[in-house]
Every structure is written in structure tokens, then in C-alpha cells.
Amino acid sequence: MCLGIPMTVVEGDDMQALVERRGETRRISMMLVGEQPVGAIVLVHIDSAVRVLDAAEAKLIDDGLDGVAAALEGRDFEHLFADLVDREPQLPDHLLKPES
Questions:
Q1: Among candidates 64, 60, 11, 61, which has minimal Cα distance to 40?
Q2: CB 3.0 to 4.6 Å from 6: which of 54, 56, 58, 92, for a disulfide?
Q3: What is the pLDDT of residues 87-97, one digit of tens each?
Q4: CB atoms closer than 10 angstroms to residue 41
């Protein structure tokens, strides 16, 4: 399984950027999203930015990743999935059957 990781642009141009997340930096391709300003958050998958994220979406992804790590380590993780607690799972729009 491959996961996209939210990372923050530190410097770069329309071809590549230096990004950071929790003390780790790496150089990635920006060819799919174009040049982004310093401080922009991008979803990084296999050393390429695939999408620009807003801070709220980046936090949800980070919480999910932290939750999976906590569960694997036997720690409490439910608080990291607060947006999913007490609600039924929902299919995304593209998987819903069209109404007749």
C-alpha cells in the first residue's frame, strides 16, 4: 500500500521543491501541481506533489496516519478519528447508484 503524505513547501519552483514534515526534508517533483509558495502544503506520493492541500485536509490526513501508527503500537487512537466517530460510513459520490 502506498500513502500520500502532507508536506510543507520550504523552497522551490515549478519543477521541484524542498518540502518538510516533522523534521524530515526531501526534494520532490512539482510537475503535477506547478510552483507553490513557501508554506503551501502538498500531498506527496512517491516523491511527487500530486495535489495542493488546505490546512484542514492536511490535518485530517496527519491525524489518520498518526491514528494508524498508534493502533499498530497498541496506543489509544480513537481521538484521532473524531470525524468518523458516531457516524455511519458513506460512499463517495462517484460510487453511489444514480437515483432513478
A1: 11
A2: 58
A3: 888 888 888 88
A4: 23
Name 91's Cβ contacts closer than 8 Å, sequence gap at least 6: none
pTM: 0.80
Burial of 42 (0-12, 13-18, 19+ CB in 10 A): buried
C-alpha torsion 43→58→22→51, nearest 10: 10
Q: Report the alpha-carbon distance of residue 52 to residue 34 in Å, rounded.
A: 10
Instruction: Annotate the chain with three-state secondary structure.
Output: CCCCEEEEEEEECCCEEEEEECCEEEEEECCCCCCCCCCCEEEEECCEEEEEECHHHHHHHHHHHHHHHHHHCCCCCHHHHCCCCCCCCCCCHHHCCCCC
